[in-house]
Amino acid sequence: MATDRAAFHVRDRWALVTGASAGIGLAYARVAAEHGFDLVLTARRKPRLDELAQELERTYGRRTFVVPADLAEPDAPQRLFDAVQQQGITVDMLVNNAGFGSRGYFRKTQWKDHAAFLQVMVTSVVHLTHLFEPGMVERGWGKIVHIASLAGLMPGSAGRTLYGPAKAFLIKFAEGLSGEHDEDGVTVTAVCPGFTYSEFHDVVGNRDAVSRLPKLMWMDADTVARQAYEAAMQGRVVLVNGAPNRALAALMKHFPDRLARELTRRGAPRAGAADDQT
Ligand SMILES: NC(=O)c1ccc[n+]([C@@H]2O[C@H](COP(=O)([O-])OP(=O)(O)OC[C@H]3O[C@@H](n4cnc5c(N)ncnc54)[C@H](OP(=O)(O)O)[C@@H]3O)[C@@H](O)[C@H]2O)c1
Description:
The protein has a single domain, classed as Rossmann fold (3-Layer(aba) Sandwich). The chain is 49% helix and 15% strand. The protein is built from 11 helices and 9 strands. It has a 7-stranded parallel beta sheet with strand order 3-2-1-4-5-6-9, sandwiched between helices. A two-stranded parallel sheet has the order 7-8. It starts with a helix and ends in an 11-residue tail after the last helix.
């Protein structure tokens, strides 16, 4: 059995990537296609997904299936699963990547916005995993990847009050779930990028603030995606992308909690996290 798994060939297997219309998700879809996966692409912006699908078919000769979906809608994961099933597609790699940042004090943000944030960042990830995981176990091979964040390993930060906890949840979820997959061919990986060039900070609206951060702290989406793919294929449970981010995560782990919180508090306004608190 172990030999069968080692010989598992990714060619003609399907990977499903959420948030494939931009940034890390788009880059991950390209990397997976390059390695022989066919791709289910989902996000809200269909024209972008169609464009990517054509590129992956043309460049890598892969099959693609585009399913536009808004993951803030509670029934989106089930609809996505049903659409994939109806095509006879079996998903062997699930990449929970879709996401966005939050900005502004918790009490100043309407509940409907908090609820949508939690739906996309937490509940949809858990729901999609619950839908696709049993098929992977049945087939004896599967990769579940959550794109979490370095923020999930740092103390909570004012103005991004739900972002860190949402990402910490994904890391703990990956750790727990991976423990349920000893020896069955399925692995679960939480990927923790730091600042990454993508559309993320334009959507949050703090591009100017984060642009002032040192270049050393930034990575490009392609590098993050390649490292994420490799970590998933190696079955790593948690990956922190890049040496500076790994150093920061290690420091925060070893600092006394109060000092770590104070350093995070001082750094937050520079990152544009808590600058609209009126
Ligand atoms: N960039 C960073 O510095 C950074 C650092 C650490 C972690 N991350 C994490 O990396 C992941 C990808 O972010 P990114 O940097 O690549 O950002 P991005 O360029 O803004 O891409 C975000 C993707 O998520 C999709 N998305 C957002 N809301 C959605 C919704 N309601 N339903 C379906 N799809 C939705 C977007 O597609 P549509 O708009 O077309 O729906 C887009 O494809 C996120 O989970 C983010 O938290 C990013």
